[in-house]
């Protein structure tokens, strides 16, 4: 049990005792008051007032008057319909610091497993296309969701589902063979392939007659003609190799990669079974549909009239494959852009009708990413390649770092440049709620001031520097303090586990990002207002413990967002 949880339980117990009768007291009604001068936690009396048949103001006065402070609670004062609680600052600060120093690497993690298994599907770039900044938002959101849910006590199975067949593959291979057969293939073959696809798209857009040629290639691929199948297998490996490198670079960990190609034929068989079961029916011109009109979801097309599969055909088979391989999944989270919202409503309803009615399904939709500067490197004018974006960010940080740290060698500068650039990219993708579009401003994202990753990283590095100058954290007994600035920052630190839990339950890393920014600001205020290294020995030790508590919290929060916490910048 965390200190913050213990504090709430103590307050609920004091209120229950003060009421002296059977009235349910909800811990959920406890929240920080709007002004910290009013206290640390406030209890809203609207619910208990109704049970007591009193006005909320009267109930608050009676409760406050009857409470006898104990434990971590020092005072209870009525304020309108609320009872404001002030904590014993010495006892509270000692408890918070002790909690963190006892297990710094697991601070914020649930003390017990929830017993529920969650599958999170994310990181779904298509082969034969270039990995771009839209994919970056997807993988950042997905990995943060995985980390948060694990910290909250869930068993998480992270998987990916990638498109490696279809029209886009035919278009790319058609262009590669027709116009680039004699090319010397560059080292970065995945990126090269993405450029070929973009060229193919442009050529077909400019001359519609070429569509027939692409269609013929697709027919040959679907017929498994040896020549085209061999080319597909070879180029598919190029894309996979690129994705593996990018995922490793970004710290993306997946238990299983699923492919459209492995569920294409099973999907067609499954549709036939749905027909036999009466869940699907033949629609206009022979297409197979699932009629969802009575649920307000229209017609869900699951197989074309010519017998060719659709995305839905394959995804229904994918569900059977996934939940057959991984037993006991209670929740299935699909991180896919917002354009697919109706599709997922139809897909989830169809899964329910198929028998997955106990499965909790969620489409975690996210909006698009554009750059304030426009496309830095574009093949069509609207796609920004991840590698170009990353290189631009890293180069800017390296240039600035070199100016500030002229005593560092190139290797050290490059390491820090990537750490800061990664922090800026990931934090920039996560600080906004998923359902809001992002206009990414590179200059702002790299700033050491404001709501940015580097700002939080710098706060961590600064605290690390203080501890390094002190020769590390003294191994002395933790003692509390009634110091005002210290209490404010430790009160924020104590809310970290609750913040992690909320961010996990709502699948919103943005909640944690905002918390870390606020804590970084509080840390800077503490360092500004309270001397640490120059304090007298007894105060110095205690304040170093406070610094360590803040530093651990910032590091843990950054790690859960998939961001490195540097000790120097």
Strand order of the largest sheet: 7-6-5-11-12
CATH architecture tag of the largest domain: 3-Layer(aba) Sandwich
Q: Can you count the beta strands? A: 14
CATH homologous superfamily classification of the largest domain:
HUPs
Count of alpha and pi helical runs: 20
Number of domains: 3
- Which of globular, elongated, flat, extended, rod-shaped describes the shape? flat
Distance between the termini: 35 Å
Report mean pLDDT, rounded to a whole number.
Answer: 93
The CATH class of the largest domain is identified as Alpha Beta
Q: Give the helix/strand class.
A: alpha/beta
The poorly predicted ranges are 376-381
Task: Please tell me how large the radius of gyration is.
Answer: 28 Å
**Oligomeric organization of the protein chains:** single chain
Could you tell me the CATH topology label of the largest domain.
Answer: Rossmann fold
Strand content: 5-15%
User: Which percent range fits the helix content?
Assistant: 40-55%
Sketch the major β-sheet: 5 strands, parallel
């Amino acid at each position: 049990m965390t200190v913050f949880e213990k504090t709430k339980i103590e307050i609920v117990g004091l209120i229950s005792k003060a009421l002296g009768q059977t009235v349910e007291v909800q811990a959920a009604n406890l929240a920080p008051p709007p002004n910290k001068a009013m206290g640390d936690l406030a209890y809203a009396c609207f619910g208990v007032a109704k049970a007591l048949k009193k006005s909320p103001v009267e109930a608050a006065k009676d409760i406050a008057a009857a409470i006898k402070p104990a434990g971590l609670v020092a005072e209870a004062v009525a304020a309108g319909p609320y009872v404001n609680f002030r904590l014993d600052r010495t006892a509270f600060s000692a408890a918070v610091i002790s909690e963190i120093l006892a297990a710094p690497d697991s601070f914020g993690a649930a003390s017990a497993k929830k017993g529920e298994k969650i599958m999170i599907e994310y990181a779904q770039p298509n082969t034969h296309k270039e990995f771009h900044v839209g994919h970056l938002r997807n993988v950042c959101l997905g990995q943060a969701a995985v980390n948060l849910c694990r910290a909250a006590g869930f068993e998480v199975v992270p998987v990916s589902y990638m498109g490696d067949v279809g029209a886009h593959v035919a278009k790319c291979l058609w262009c590669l063979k027709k116009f680039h057969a004699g090319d010397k293939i560059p080292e970065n073959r995945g990126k090269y392939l993405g450029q070929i696809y973009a060229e193919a798209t442009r050529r077909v857009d400019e001359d519609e007659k070429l569509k027939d040629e692409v269609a013929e290639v697709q027919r040959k691929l679907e017929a498994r003609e040896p020549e085209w199948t061999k080319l597909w297998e070879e180029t598919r490996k190029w894309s996979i190799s690129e994705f593996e490198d990018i995922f490793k670079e970004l710290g993306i960990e997946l238990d299983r990669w699923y492919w459209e190609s492995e569920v294409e034929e099973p999907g067609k068989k499954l549709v036939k079974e749905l027909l036999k079961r009466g869940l699907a029916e033949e629609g206009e011109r022979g297409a197979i549909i699932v009629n969802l009109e009575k649920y307000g979801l229209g017609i869900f097309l699951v197989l074309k009239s010519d017998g060719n599969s659709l995305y839905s055909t394959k995804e229904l088979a994918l569900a059977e494959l996934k939940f057959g391989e991984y037993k006991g999944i209670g929740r299935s989270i699909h991180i896919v852009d917002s354009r697919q919202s109706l599709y997922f409503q139809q897909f989830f309803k169809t899964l329910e009708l198929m028998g997955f009615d106990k499965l909790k399904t969620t489409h975690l939709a996210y909006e698009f990413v554009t750059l304030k500067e426009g496309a830095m490197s574009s093949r069509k004018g609207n796609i920004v390649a991840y590698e170009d974006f990353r290189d631009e960010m890293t180069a800017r940080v390296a240039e600035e770092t070199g100016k500030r740290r002229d005593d560092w060698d190139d290797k050290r500068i490059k390491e820090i440049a990537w750490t800061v650039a990664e922090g800026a990219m990931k934090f920039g993708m996560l600080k906004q709620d998923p359902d809001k579009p992002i206009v990414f401003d590179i200059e702002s994202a790299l700033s050491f001031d404001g709501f940015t990753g580097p700002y939080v990283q710098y706060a961590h590095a600064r605290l690390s520097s203080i501890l390094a100058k002190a020769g590390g954290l003294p191994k002395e007994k933790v003692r509390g303090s009634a110091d005002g600035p210290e209490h404010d920052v430790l009160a924020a630190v104590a809310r970290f586990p609750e913040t992690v839990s909320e961010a996990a339950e709502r699948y919103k890393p943005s909640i944690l990002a905002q918390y870390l920014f606020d804590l970084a600001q509080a840390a800077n205020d503490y360092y500004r207002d309270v001397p640490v290294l120059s304090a007298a020995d007894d105060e110095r030790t205690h304040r170093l413990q406070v610094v360590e508590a803040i530093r651990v919290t910032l590091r843990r929060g950054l790690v859960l967002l998939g961001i490195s916490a540097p000790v120097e910048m």
